[in-house]
Design goal:
Blueprint: E1 20-22, E2 28-30, H1 31-36, E3 44-46, E4 53-55, H2 68-71, H3 102-108, E5 118-121, E6 132-138, E7 148-157, E8 170-171, H4 173-182, H5 186-197, E9 206-212, E10 217-223, H6 241-260, E11 263-264, E12 267-269, E13 273-275, E14 281-283, H7 285-303, H8 312-324, E15 327-329, H9 331-340, H10 360-393, H11 399-417, H12 426-432, H13 443-451, H14 457-460, E16 476-477, E17 488-489, E18 492-493, H15 516-522, E19 525-530, E20 537-543, E21 546-551, E22 556-560, E23 566-570, E24 577-584, E25 588-594, E26 598-603, E27 614-617, E28 627-633, E29 637-642, E30 647-651, E31 657-661, E32 668-674, E33 677-682, E34 687-691, E35 697-701, E36 712-718, E37 721-726, E38 730-735, E39 738-744, E40 750-756, E41 759-764, E42 768-776, E43 781-790, E44 795-801, E45 804-809, E46 814-819
Parallel strand pairs: 11-16
Antiparallel strand pairs: 1-2, 3-4, 5-6, 6-7, 7-10, 8-43, 9-10, 12-15, 13-14, 17-18, 19-46, 20-21, 21-22, 22-23, 24-25, 25-26, 26-27, 28-29, 29-30, 30-31, 32-33, 33-34, 34-35, 36-37, 37-38, 38-39, 40-41, 41-42, 42-43, 44-45, 45-46
Helix pairs in contact: 6-10, 6-13, 7-8, 8-10, 10-11
Length: about 800
């Protein structure tokens, strides 16, 4: 049998090269390993076996005693097991059963505009025929100059807070938006992802996503630029050729940029072209999506009363309506769109490929619209009407025939209207009107044609348009995409096409109490009020099948955990009860402390007695405010945090004072025992660590910085995580005594904090129980607001136990939130 070995390097102890040394916690490791263990704080190391912080002599491991007995042992008497004080709780409960992975949350959370970045609508009503709104993006800095005009496009819907849900829980704004996004079809999310990544020259900006909590609508928020009207392009002369050419170049550049991102639009309208303050032309992404939806809407209106497939009459009406609305759609795009809606007969025409060349025809018609102004628009509408009437007489059902007639009219207008400097554009514009996308010129050729109107051929040849390969992304046509199918017809919205979030969406069934917050959101968590105290509740503890509650009314109430009925009242305190703990040791007792310095021990065995088993008092001094916090260690000591700035260790057996620990500069307001260490929080803003083995001071966390003191009001610990709550609404989180996160989560004092695994509960002066989710690793930590539970008064104490959340309030009430199943 092999001899015992070091738990770090796994080398067998031999008394020479691998010499066992005993730490104060009782565990053993070899000298070399103890020397190399990182020391975060002076004269302390973390035991490699039980992870408890222990004193380490300045002289090194040689000053520690040898484990002579261990050298004589065989494996039948193996190394000590980890310290019994190590947290042996069951795995933490999964409060929010989310259907989306962490990677999804990380990918979308920064794209959601937070509530303090407000979007205010312009105007009092939303147009029934449009899913787009205008608004104002307020950056929350209080400076009016920081506002930006924005466009809003509806992309999803979620449940409003006033929709009649019985839930006492409210998901956080961010989580509701993430849930809405997760409820979308994958195609819709993919398109949103691509659109929100666009940062190209000549394309309007997309700021992010914003949820209107009043209407339950998720909007895509984009930059709002200056509109223009066709009247501004009336009476265009040759002197304006350069200006129009610049606009043409900028439109081509914008679309070429979108092509690099895998987006081709397939249709354009006059409303898609916007200008900035310098007169530069932009393509508006929000307006492009709205135009695509208008195409769907117009087709639905014109074909809703017709049998399928539709004929030339309906197709002619569709074309006319599109042109009247200033929308220009490539033949192959409209064909595919109609075919997707089963509006064409199978033999109507051969299938055409929709690609980047599908943007050439809409750009061509749009440029002609700018060149010809309103008169050109009227002639084009008249041409469409003429084609429609002609083909209806022949009863043709082929969309190709209609488009051919329209293109012939367009070519005629080109040759008859364009002259002078614009004459050079006739040839390429005629080619752009070709129905076959394979024979159309590319956008770069159209760009060059516009450029030649500005500079001569010799100079223009100096600037070669570099052909860039498109990024490796899935290509899609915007108007044929999923986002454009969110159609609004008149005042009736096609809700079946809207991605929504039903109450409790994404929650798994059969989780019982483990899905606590998930049940809250579904309205499946019941809330029960426990009434009986005559003043503010100050403490909560659970044990032996009971809930214990203390109050400023000087009493301790005992409640049954089975039906939450009142069982008993402990009486005897002469001062307000300020602290309460439950101890399961040699004897099961409840220990309470009061403002007069009294510590009372109550038996929790039947029959329950009104009077305490024993009691004692710390030295009374009118200058101090008695007991503020209590904690217990398995060594049999009760620790009290006092108004005299000290921590005292008392023997539970007889109440004798064992030790007084000093160092804090103000009231010791909270105590926590974890992994062989006592953590004490104080109004001086620091957390001090004390060894439970000899009550020696180990180190201090959160020391005063630049004279700023934030009083610590509550501590919570679980596994290796420690959370401190402050009077200004801040929390600070440590893992393995290393500071990981400091942030403000409330606007006022946090009076109580509870921690269970990755779920953090906080409550205080804002009268709300807030729930945060902790995630990350040993390098970084994230704290995400999950949701909240509105309370009736100031939250004074919190406790989570076995699927139940207990909250004590200043209005004398204790609320229990539990699963109704």
């Amino acid at each position: 049998m092999e001899p015992p070995e070091c738990p770090v390097c796994l080398q067998s102890y031999d008394g020479e090269s691998t010499l066992p040394r005993v730490l104060s916690c009782g565990h053993t490791a070899c000298e070399e390993c103890l020397t190399n263990i990182p020391k975060k704080f002076p004269d302390t190391i973390r035991c490699p076996a039980c992870t408890v912080l222990v004193k380490f002599p300045p002289q090194g491991p040689s000053a520690l005693p040898k484990n002579i007995d261990l050298l004589r042992l065989f494996p039948s008497s193996s190394n000590p097991t980890p310290d019994s004080t190590r947290n042996s709780k069951n795995s933490s409960f999964e409060f929010v059963t989310r259907s989306w992975p962490d990677e999804f949350h990380a990918a979308w959370k920064d794209r959601v505009l937070l509530l303090d970045v407000s979007v205010e609508r312009e105007g009092s009503t939303e147009s029934a025929s449009s899913s787009r709104l205008c608004g104002c993006l307020n950056k929350g800095d209080g400076d009016g100059d920081g506002d930006s005009k924005v466009s809003l496009l509806r992309v999803g819907s979620f449940q409003r807070r006033d929709d009649g849900c019985d839930s006492v829980f409210e998901f956080s704004y961010l989580l509701r938006m993430i849930s809405c996004l997760w409820g979308m079809e994958e195609g819709e999310r993919d398109e949103l992802d691509v659109i929100m990544r666009v940062e190209e020259r000549g394309v309007s900006k997309v700021f992010g996503l914003w949820g209107d909590l009043k209407s339950g609508v998720l909007y895509l928020v984009g930059q709002k630029l200056t509109d223009f009207s066709l009247e501004e392009f009336e009476d265009i002369s040759e002197d304006d050729a350069s200006c129009l050419a610049v606009i043409g170049m900028q439109l081509c550049e914008a679309l070429l940029s979108l092509h690099k991102d895998g987006i081709f639009v397939g249709c354009l309208s006059v409303s898609c072209v916007k200008f900035d303050e310098f007169g530069n032309a932009f393509v508006d992404l929000i307006e492009l999506l709205e135009t695509g939806r208008n195409v769907y809407g117009l087709i639905s209106e014109e074909t809703s009363s017709c049998s399928k497939p539709v004929g030339a009459l309906e197709m002619g009406l569709v074309l006319k309506r599109l042109v009247e609305n200033g929308i220009f759609v490539s033949f192959e795009v409209l064909f595919e769109l109609l075919k997707k809606q089963n509006l064409l007969i199978t033999q109507a025409s051969s299938e055409c490929m929709v690609a980047c060349s599908s943007d050439v025809l809409p750009v061509c018609v749009l440029l002609l619209m700018l060149l010809g102004g309103k008169q050109f628009s009227e002639e084009l509408i008249e041409s469409v009407s003429g084609v429609d009437a002609k083909e209806c007489e022949e009863k043709s059902e082929d969309l190709l025939v209609l488009y051919t007639g329209l293109m012939e009219k367009l070519s005629y207008i080109l040759e008859s209207k364009l002259s002078g400097k614009f004459k050079s554009m006739v040839g390429i514009l005629r080619q752009c009107c070709c129905l076959d996308p394979q024979t159309r010129p590319v956008l770069t050729d159209l760009w060059k044609c516009n450029r030649e109107l500005i500079m001569n051929h010799r100079l223009s040849s100096m600037f070669a348009l570099e052909k860039k390969k498109p990024r490796k992304r899935k290509e899609f046509c915007l108007v044929l995409g999923e986002l454009c199918r969110l159609v609004v017809v008149g005042s009736k919205e096609l809700e079946e096409d809207l991605p929504g979030m039903e109450s409790g969406d994404g929650a798994e069934e059969g989780k019982l109490d483990k899905d606590f917050v998930g049940r809250l959101s579904e309205g499946k968590i019941k809330s029960k009020d426990l009434r009986g105290h005559q003043d503010s509740v100050t403490g909560l503890a659970v044990g032996g099948g009971f809930l214990f509650s203390s109050s400023l009314d000087k009493n301790i109430h005992v409640w049954s955990l089975k039906d939450f009925s009142h069982v008993h009242t402990f009486k005897g305190h002469q001062d307000k009860v300020t602290a309460l703990i439950y101890i399961k040791g040699v004897e099961t007792v409840c220990v309470s402390g009061d403002g007069g310095g009294g510590i009372f021990v109550w038996s929790t065995s039947f029959p329950l007695e009104e009077q305490p088993l024993r009691k004692w008092y710390e030295p009374k001094d009118w200058r101090y405010s008695g007991i503020h916090a209590l904690a217990y260690s398995e060594d049999g000591y009760v620790y009290s945090g006092s108004g005299d700035n000290t921590i005292k260790a008392w023997s539970l057996q007889d109440g004798k004072l064992v030790c007084t620990m000093t160092g804090h500069k103000s009231v010791v307001s909270t105590l926590v025992v974890l992994n062989g260490v006592l953590y004490s929080g104080s109004w001086d803003g620091t957390v001090r660590l004390w060894s439970l083995s000899d009550h020696s001071f180990l180190t201090v966390l959160g020391e005063e910085t630049q004279g700023i003191v934030k009083s610590i009001l509550s501590l919570a610990a679980d596994e290796g995580t420690l959370v401190a709550a402050y009077q200004n609404g801040d929390i600070q989180i440590w893992r393995d005594d290393t500071s990981m996160k400091s942030m403000q989560i409330q606007s006022s004092a946090i009076l109580s904090v509870a921690l269970n695994g990755k779920w953090l509960f906080t409550g205080g002066w804002d009268r709300t129980v807030n729930i945060q989710e902790l995630s990350g690793d040993e390098i970084s930590l994230e704290c995400t607001h999950v949701g909240s539970i509105p309370g009736s008064s100031v939250v004074t104490s919190l406790l989570y136990w076995e699927g139940k959340l207990f909250a004590g309030f200043a209005d004398k009430i204790i609320k229990v939130y539990y699963s109704g199943r």
